Amino acid sequence: MKLFDSHCHLDDAVFAKDMNEIYQRMDEADVVKAMTVGIDRQSSQKAVALADARKRLCAAVGIHPHNAKDSTASDLAILNNLAKNPVVRAWGEIGLDFNRMFSPVKDQEMCLHMQIEIAEPLKLPIIFHERDTQGRLLEILETQRNKIVGGVIHCFSGNRQELKRYLDMGFYIGITGILTIKGRGAYLRKLVTSIPAEQILIETDAPYLTPAPQKNRTRRNEPAYVRSVLIKLAQIRNEDPELLADVIWKNTCRLFQADAV
Prior knowledge:
Largest sheet: 8 strands, parallel
CATH topology: TIM Barrel
Oligomer: single chain
Structural class: alpha/beta
Helix content: 25-40%
Number of domains: 1
Shape: globular
Number of helices: 9
CATH superfamily: Metal-dependent hydrolases
Order of helices and strands: EHEHEHEHEHEHEHEHH
CATH architecture: Alpha-Beta Barrel
Number of strands: 8
Radius of gyration: 17 Å
Distance between the termini: 13 Å
């Protein structure tokens, strides 16, 4: 099978010492491609450099809602220019996060709107982050939908009604290793059977959200472990893993307009 980790952060310092081994484990797990995602100017620049160096990677650039209060017009201009590199296949991750509130709501929403405006003429799909916004991100996306060429709700953690609204707008749903966690993933496991296969992506969010069974021996997630997400997803949906993997591979390549390698 061919797997595509649609969201990871390979620029993180925890990967600096063993990148070759990480790529080797990707090979062993049939993870052919990965999207490495920026959260600010510096991480976006590193993501692009990584993708420039490895054909199997593509990159996304953007300002995470946690970093919204510190972003500047200069940062956005640099990212806009950076996004013209052909290895950049998405804008993100961007969105709203009302859980930790590292940035005020006003700054988060302004940063989100500005980045949607930048991504539109670039014709880049958007990777959206949402946490505890009580429907606010949905409200914004429903008013801005005509400006968005495509997108994925990264690490979906909403309810059934929110899921339907995202799906009705045509967005893909990113499923992480949370699906494999007994307690934390229970509600998500109830929802994934109602997602059309053609709107599912799988992701690690590495180095975070390590799936089972790997979480029993390591805290650091990595792209190879997206295979565990796929296997669990197929089990819950009662589908053949190879057939589901093929559909999700095509979904991811279609959204990011990524070469099939």
